[in-house]
Write a structure and sequence with these properties.
single chain, 6-stranded parallel beta sheet, 12 strands, elongated
C-alpha cells in the first residue's frame, strides 16, 4: 500500500499542513521539525503525488483561458500563441468558451475558481464591461482586447482604431474614392474601434461620405454585404471589411456576381488570418500578430503571478501592420 502524507504526519507527530509546508520548502517551519519530517519521509519512502501537492500548496500548474468562441482562424491562432508559451513553462491549459453569450461568461469564470493559478480572459463586450470587472476572480488575470480595464488588472490589446485609419489611408492612396465599410457586431469593442477609425478617416476627407454595412465578424455576413452591393444602383470603389472572415465572404459574393476584384471593386480586411494570403486575389489586410497577442498575454500573466509589480496593472497595445496584396491594387491599362 502506498505511503500517504498522513502517514508521514503521524510518524513525525506533526500536522498534515506542517508536512506539506516542510516538503514544499516554506520558511515558516522550524529547522529541527523540517529535518525530522524529511527524515521520516525518506525512511517511509514517501513520494508526494503531484496533484495532492498542488492542492496543498494551492498551485495547480494550470492557466485558465476564457474566450468568447473557439471557432475560426483567429481563435486558433490566439490559442497557438498561448499554448506555445504554456508548453515551454510546463504548464497546462484549461480552456472554456461562452459561445458569444455574455450571460454565460460569468459561469465560465466561476468554473475556473480553485482550478487554475491565473486567468486569461477575452471579453469584447462593451455593455456589461463594468459588471464583468466586478466578477473577476481574486487571482492574477490578464485581459485580452478588453472594452474596460480595471486599474489593478493587466491587459494586452490591439490598436484597432489606428489600424483602421492606416487601411483607409492606403485605400485613398491607391486611388479609391468611395469606400464602403462592413462593420462588426455592435457590442464588440474591436468592431467599434475599427468602425471609429473608418468614420474618423471619412470625416478627415473633404467630400467623402460614410457607407457602413452591417456585419457579424463571420463569412455569412460578409457574403450578405457582397450580395447587397451587387444589387445596389451605385457601387463603391473599394470595400473595407472589419475582419478578414467578412472580407472573404464578400469576395465570394462579388465573384459569384461576376465582379472582378480588384478591377471592378477593391477589397481589404483586418487581422491577416492565414487563409487571407491563399485566396484569389490574395487579400490586402491589417496584420495583427494574433499568436503574439496570446503569447504576450500569458507572459504578462506569468510575470504578474511571480510578483512583478511592473506587470500587474500594466497595459500593452500591439500595432497592426498594413499588408498590401492584390485585392486592393488599382489594375493597369491591361486590366
Amino acid at each position: 500500500m502506498s505511503v500517504t502524507i498522513k502517514d508521514v504526519a503521524r510518524h513525525a507527530n506533526v500536522s498534515v499542513a506542517t508536512v506539506s509546508r516542510a516538503l514544499n520548502g516554506h520558511p515558516n517551519v522550524a529547522e529541527d521539525v523540517r529535518r525530522r519530517i524529511l527524515g521520516v519521509a525518506e525512511q517511509l519512502r514517501y513520494s508526494p503525488h503531484h496533484a495532492a501537492r498542488s492542492l496543498s500548496s494551492r498551485r495547480t500548474q494550470t492557466i485558465g483561458v476564457v474566450l468568447p468562441d473557439l471557432y475560426g482562424e483567429f481563435f486558433s491562432e490566439l490559442m497557438r500563441g498561448i499554448d506555445h508559451v504554456a508548453r515551454e513553462r510546463g504548464l497546462h491549459l484549461l480552456v472554456s468558451s461562452y459561445h458569444g453569450n455574455p450571460q454565460e461568461q460569468g459561469a465560465a469564470l466561476r468554473t475556473m475558481r480553485g482550478r487554475v493559478d491565473g486567468l486569461l480572459l477575452m471579453s469584447p463586450f462593451v455593455d456589461g464591461a463594468e459588471a464583468l470587472a466586478a466578477e473577476l476572480p481574486p487571482m492574477p488575470v490578464v485581459l485580452m482586447n478588453p472594452a474596460l480595464v480595471p486599474e489593478d488588472r493587466s491587459a494586452v490589446g490591439v490598436d484597432n482604431h489606428g489600424g483602421a485609419m492606416a487601411m483607409m489611408r492606403h485605400l485613398r492612396d491607391a486611388g479609391h474614392q468611395r469606400i464602403a465599410f462592413i462593420a462588426g457586431p455592435a457590442d464588440n469593442f474591436d468592431a467599434k474601434e475599427r468602425l471609429r477609425g473608418y468614420r474618423d478617416a471619412i470625416a478627415a476627407t473633404p467630400g467623402a461620405e460614410a457607407w457602413v454595412m452591417p456585419g457579424d465578424f463571420d463569412e455569412a455576413s460578409g457574403h450578405r454585404a457582397g450580395q447587397a452591393l451587387l444589387q445596389a444602383q451605385a457601387r463603391p470603389d473599394a470595400v473595407f471589411a472589419a475582419n478578414d472572415m467578412m472580407a472573404l465572404g464578400c469576395l465570394f459574393a462579388l465573384t459569384q456576381g461576376g465582379l472582378r476584384v480588384p478591377a471592378d471593386i477593391a477589397l481589404a480586411g483586418f487581422d491577416d488570418i492565414p487563409l487571407s494570403r491563399y485566396v484569389h486575389p490574395a487579400l490586402t489586410t491589417m496584420r495583427v500578430e494574433i499568436a503574439e497577442l496570446g503569447a504576450r498575454a500569458i507572459h504578462k500573466l506569468l510575470d504578474a503571478g511571480q510578483g512583478d509589480a511592473a506587470a500587474a496593472g500594466s497595459r500593452e497595445l500591439l500595432e497592426p501592420r498594413l499588408v498590401v496584396r492584390r485585392s486592393s491594387q488599382v489594375p493597369g491599362p491591361d486590366g
